[in-house]
């Protein structure tokens, strides 16, 4: 029997976690022979709801789930964890400006970064889902000076999956046949979903696509899909966000399929001219628990404009929280 992985999930009583936790316990991320211990973290106000969720997990009698621990603080919750899903975040309240939202979350994620630094396993892999995810990941990473920045990632996999789904619908292929979709930049409406290198059953799809449709329908639809879902169901994406989190962590840990790549928000090493140090979504390949940016993809003028716009937004977000960013350490981009 393998030794259990310790997995922390913050915001564990929330909607995304409700979809995620049962699938984690069923072995969908780390394999069906890998036992796990769940270390669930919530605000003290939500501990009662979390206790209810823990009872349900127990009632599933998952063979891989060795223990469930409940915590109302990140210092205890992150103790010895190998993987951390940072899902809990402060939502935007009425009348709240973007800067207020950034500042409120900066406090949460700087404390969580310090707690990971001091208490987690030194090889911990961190996925930030809570919004604004890229900048939250940046803050957590910068508050964890003993960990490599490459251990901190944020989620653009939901955007990646959305792009793949829309392209499959458009071309009539199955999603399993579509490869090499990429999402660049921020997990926000400025992101750049890119299908210029995409393939269906190994053949390039770009020559057969209507480029007006790509520019005027596909790209804005992926960018605004989150808002479209909120309008339709009155709540933000939950099950599909959990799916994105599962896919992100599974591929990081298990590796990406041969001949494909995925999108992950990671600390920029300057590839494609993107400012070093911001957390930016790149196409990556994963192997042996590490990721590498896919190099050499062609960037034409139109694509460059889109990269510039999303990079600018991330630099502005970084500027808005600069007082919470401790001095930058040398970029250790060797995850
Ligand atoms: P939710 O409101 O259902 O749950 C959030 C939970 O986090 C709540 O139970 C709350 O008590 C908890 N929480 C808040 N602050 C916390 C803290 N400091 N420590 C521990 N727990 C804390 O929200 P939902 O739907 O689960 O979404 C969570 C986050 O994920 C939101 O920020 C949302 O915007 C973001 N999101 C990100 C996506 C992405 O693609 N990156 C996609 C969809 C949502």
UniProtKB/TrEMBL annotation:
It is an enzyme of class 1 (oxidoreductase). Residues 6-145 form the Lactate/malate dehydrogenase N-terminal domain. CDD domains: MDH_chloroplast-like (cd01338). Pfam families: Ldh_1_C (PF02866), Ldh_1_N (PF00056). Residues 157-323 form the Lactate/malate dehydrogenase C-terminal domain. The keyword Oxidoreductase applies. The active site is at residue 187. Keywords: NAD, Oxidoreductase, Tricarboxylic acid cycle. Its EC number is 1.1.1.37. Substrate binds at residues 92, 98, 131, 162. NAD(+) binds at residues 11-17, 105, 112, 129-131. It comes from the Bacteria. Gene3D superfamilies: Lactate dehydrogenase/glycoside hydrolase, family 4, C-terminal, NAD(P)-binding Rossmann-like Domain. It catalyses: (S)-malate + NAD(+) = oxaloacetate + NADH + H(+). Belongs to the LDH/MDH superfamily. MDH type 2 family. PANTHER family: MALATE DEHYDROGENASE. Catalyzes the reversible oxidation of malate to oxaloacetate. This is Malate dehydrogenase.
């Amino acid at each position: 029997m393998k030794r259990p992985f310790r997995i922390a999930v913050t915001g564990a009583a929330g909607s995304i976690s409700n979809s995620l936790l049962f699938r984690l316990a069923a072995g969908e991320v780390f394999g069906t022979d890998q036992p796990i211990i769940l270390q669930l973290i919530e605000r003290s106000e939500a501990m009662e709801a979390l206790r209810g969720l823990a009872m349900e997990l127990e009632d599933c009698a998952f063979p891989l789930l060795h223990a469930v621990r409940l915590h109302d603080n990140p210092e205890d919750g992150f103790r010895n964890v190998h993987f951390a899903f940072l899902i809990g975040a402060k939502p935007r309240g009425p009348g709240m400006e973007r800067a207020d939202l950034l500042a409120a979350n900066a406090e949460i994620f700087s404390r969580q970064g310090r707690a990971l630094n001091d208490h987690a396993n030194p090889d911990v892999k961190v996925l930030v889902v809570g919004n604004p995810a890229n900048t939250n990941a940046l803050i957590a990473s910068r508050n964890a000076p003993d960990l490599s920045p490459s251990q901190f990632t944020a989620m653009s996999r939901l955007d990646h999956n959305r792009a793949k789904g829309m392209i499959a619908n458009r071309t009539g292929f199955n999603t399993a046949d579509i490869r090499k979709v990429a999402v660049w930049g921020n997990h926000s409406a400025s992101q750049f979903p890119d299908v210029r290198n995409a393939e269906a059953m190994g053949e390039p799809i770009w020559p057969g696509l209507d480029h007006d449709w790509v520019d005027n329908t596909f790209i804005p639809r992926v960018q605004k899909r989150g808002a479209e879902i909120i309008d339709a169901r009155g709540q933000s994406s939950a099950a599909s966000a959990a799916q994105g989190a599962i896919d992100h962590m599974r591929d990081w840990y298990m590796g990406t399929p041969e001949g494909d790549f995925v999108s992950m928000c990671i600390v920029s090493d300057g590839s494609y001219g993107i400012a070093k140090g911001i957390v930016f979504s790149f196409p990556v390949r994963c192997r042996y628990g590490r990721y590498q940016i896919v190099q050499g993809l062609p960037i034409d003028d139109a694509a460059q404009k889109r990269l510039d716009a999303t990079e600018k937004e991330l630099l502005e977000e970084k500027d808005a929280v600069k007082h919470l960013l401790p001095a930058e350490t040398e970029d250790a981009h060797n995850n």
